[in-house]
Amino acid sequence: MEQPLRTMKLWSKADEKTLKKLFKSGLRDAEIGSKMDRSESSVKTRRMSLGLVKESRLSWTDAEKAQLLECHKSGMTDKQIGEVLKRSESSVLSMRGKLHNQAGNQAGKKAYNPALTNAEVEQIIALSSEGVRIAEIARRINRSAGAVTKKLRQVEKSAKENPS
């Protein structure tokens, strides 16, 4: 079957005005593209040529940091926390690691990874029982494969010692 030729859709002044309006409303390039029937890369290229630059959110407020920790303690995933805080999942993971490492350093300890939450342990057990590979489980919960393996071994050992 023959592929249709790709056509380049030109930007009109009205399109540019719409792009500016949608960008200023806080929509991401992909969302703007969807609304305007254009690709994300097309929107990004035109946005940048118009001088519309995303503000980088380099610093976290103390309130955001506190909310991140509270959300994590409640068992939320980094992705869920990111949605609440309007941050990327990787930004949340990075800040969470920094906060936990700071807490360890202030106590005169080496940097550490926080203990797995009950929600993470339940997720590990459920995914493992579904046959999901350790590397994939680790990726989904933003933990190392070693941490997942260690927890699964602990669960298996506990099950052998305390059969129901």
Give me a quick take on this structure.
This protein has 164 residues and is an all-alpha fold.
Describe the structure.
- The structure is a single chain.
- The chain has helices at residues 13-24, 29-36, 40-49, 62-73, 78-85, 89-106, 118-129, 134-141, 145-161.
- With 164 residues, it is mostly helical.
- It has three domains: 13-49; 62-106; 118-161.
- Mean pLDDT is 84; it is low at 107-112.
- Report Rg: 22 Å
Summarize the helix and strand pattern as letters: HHHHHHHHH
Distance between the termini: 59 Å
Beta fraction of the residues?
A: under 5%
| Shape call | elongated
Can you give the helix content as a percent range?
Answer: 55-70%
The DSSP helix count reads 9
Task: Lay out the secondary structure.
Layout (H helix, E strand, L loop, with lengths): L12 H12 L4 H8 L3 H10 L12 H12 L4 H8 L3 H18 L11 H12 L4 H8 L3 H17 L3
Helix pairs in contact: 2-3, 5-6, 7-8, 7-9, 8-9
Task: Based on the model shown, name its key terms.
164 residues, 64% helix, 3 domains
